[in-house]
# Entry
Amino acid sequence: MKEWFAIIMGASLLVLMIPILYRIIVGPTGFDRILCANVIGTKTAVILVIIGTLFDRVDMFVDFAIAYALLNFVGAIVVSRYFNRTVPLQEMEKDKAKPRRRLKA
Amino acid sequence: MIDTLASAVLAEPVNSPGWFLVHAIGVSMGIVGLIFFLGTAVGVVRFPDFYTRMHAAGKGDTLSTMLMLTGFGLVMMEDFSANSWLLLLKILGIVLFIFITTPTSSHALMRAAFEDDEMPLGEEDLNKLRKRRAKSKSK
# Structure
């Protein structure tokens, strides 16, 4: 019963990842892509625990899942810092003058 | 040593009704987590804007991952030996970690998007969207 629960859970997780993969491919901005990659990375930690159940080595795979969640978090923080341009104070005054770009709907 | 002692004192047969209850709670937590993840997937595809998509992705992702991992931790438990307690503790450690880090990373992403002049949809954008939907429906 444990094995069947793991198999059904993993298969439905994989099926539900397809719409999020769609948003990664066609996402209008880069931030959508990063966000959805982050979602898939979080779900990969769950899938690692499921794989551990199927191989009967959960104690080992749980450590993998911890490391994967850590790397995912660090990756998201690094990418958001990369896009977050820190502007000097004088240029910020100039930036206020120009209008902000609007999203094209 | 501790393992043999604990299992001698606390071991119960796996098929007893108490264990069935624990496993049923674990399975239902996993199913509820799947429902939340379905909400995340639908929201990420259908929302019109980056910030609204982030609303769906941030919340649903955190809660569904926590529920699924806790459910798996309960399903894994088969006796009260030290090994299975350690396993449950490790899985709860992942749950705590995700509970802290996923909101943090979505906050950082939201901050980066706002600094990068990515504006939320305004009134006129929504009107344009509504007109386009009405056109595509009338076709």
Summary: Chain A touches chain B through 50 residues (CB under 8 Å). Chain A has one domain: 2-97. The mean pLDDT of chain A is 83.
